[in-house]
Amino acid sequence: MAITDWPAAERPREKLIELGAQALSDAELLAIFLRVGVVGKSAVDLARDLLHQFGSLNAIFAASEHDLSQVHGIGSSKYVQLQAIFEMSRRALNEQLQQRDVFSSPQQVRDYLVLKLGTLTKEVFLVLFLDAQNRLIASEELFSGTLTQTSVYPREVVKRALHHNAASLILAHNHPSGSAQASSADELLTKQLKQALGLVDVRVLDHFIVAGNQTLSFAEKGLIGDRLL
Predict the structure, then answer these.
(1) What is the separation of C-alpha 103 from the centre of its chain, rounded to a whole number of angstroms?
(2) What pLDDT, on the 0 to 100 scale, is given for residue 229?
């Protein structure tokens, strides 16, 4: 049955207008983006197929053009549109973090980091440089590859912090393996960075580990305080 034949209250577009986007399921939101289905399947059915095949919205955004094109009804134009939506979401969150104290809306920080790092297939070390009011000055990916205390150079982080005249910063890196747990190497790296940045009076406010949609905050776990000194 085509979506146009559904009761009005069950159609994704009408439901969104009536109740707001937050009331829709992932499949319904994706169906609005897809607009149309294929022969024998509505847009919602096609959206459910995508979610079943890739596992999550994040995985769909991270999929290559080749992988998405293997799904009947999805071509290059849809891939381009998905990537544009994904990038606009990241930029919108970036703008919000620049305009307010990042700790006034900690979930936005997590959402931003998930969008930046959650879909990557290699480890990336990112730094959020903040001003004295804890507003975002810049977000930079400084290192990539297999991250250890020997491949993330404290002097480079210090140099970029001074370049931005940052008062503080938030560290973040991803675990493509899917586990958001902090290793002893992660703790040692955080300790070294905190000590190096302390010499130039730049505070490390937190260190996030991102694994897909999951995040771990060192500050929340008590791993960013005096025990690191």
Answers:
(1) 17
(2) 40
